Amino acid sequence: MARRLLEVAANSLASALAAQAGGADRVELCTGLELGGLTPSMAQIAQVRERLSIPLYVLIRPRAGDFLYNDDELDVMQHDIETCLSLGCDGVVFGVLDADARVDLARCKPLLSAAGGMGVTFHRAFDMARDLPRALEDVVALGAERVLTSGGAVSAIAGADTIHQLIEQAAGRIVVMPGAGVRATNIAGLAQATGASEIHASAKGVLPSGMHWSNPVLTDMASGEVRSDVDEVHALVAALHSPA
């Protein structure tokens, strides 16, 4: 079997550099990991693109919440994709559903077109679809190169059986990439159970705050930075490539 690839969700330049130093094969750049990921700023995308030598994909998600977008939101998404193309990114990550929880091909196609020669990953909006096998066929028809999924479950481990079935269904037409709750302690078992060729993880930890004082009634703003950890990335890579 070909070497498996690890993609790391990075929420900052520091996280992206940690992912690269730890041996990740690709970075998905976002912000707001605690919200499931949002589109980073143009400046941050440019900064990471300049410093990173491994492939860089950028999350295109204008807000938290569901994946039913209005025309203004779709216009923002299209402009963000065009920005990524102009900055030399390798790919973008997006997903749009209709009100019946199906892949909205009509609204996804202009976004795919805006991506030009960049790769496209359909993100975990897929897991919110009513019918995953049908959604997979729709994403294949769209022309995306991969889909990120937990198998519709709370974690990729819990959804491993469904992910395996989706990989069988895909039959090489698209990459089905497990993600959600992936750790160094479970990544090898996940790879074996699903047969996945690519796996997605955040490898994140919370750094202690450097503040000497913080307002005790505003605890939601008192914690340290969430950042990808180079040692956790190393551990993920080592576990992923260890002999069975």
Walk me through the structure.
The relative contact order is 0.16. The protein is built from eight helices and ten strands. The protein is globular. The longest helix has 16 residues, at about 70-85. It has an eight-stranded parallel beta sheet with strand order 7-6-5-4-3-2-1-8. It has a two-stranded antiparallel sheet with strand order 9-10. With about 240 residues, it is α/β, with parallel strands linked by helices. Strand 4, helix 4 (about 105-115) and strand 5 (about 120) form a beta-alpha-beta unit.
**Per the principal axes of the C-alpha atoms, what is the gross shape?**
globular
Number of helices, counting only DSSP H or I runs of 4 residues or more: 8
Distance between the termini: 12 Å
Strand content: 15-25%
Helix content: 25-40%
Structural class: alpha/beta
State Rg: 18 Å
Biggest β-sheet description = 8 strands, parallel
Element order: H for helix, E for strand: EHEHEHEHEHEHEHEEEH
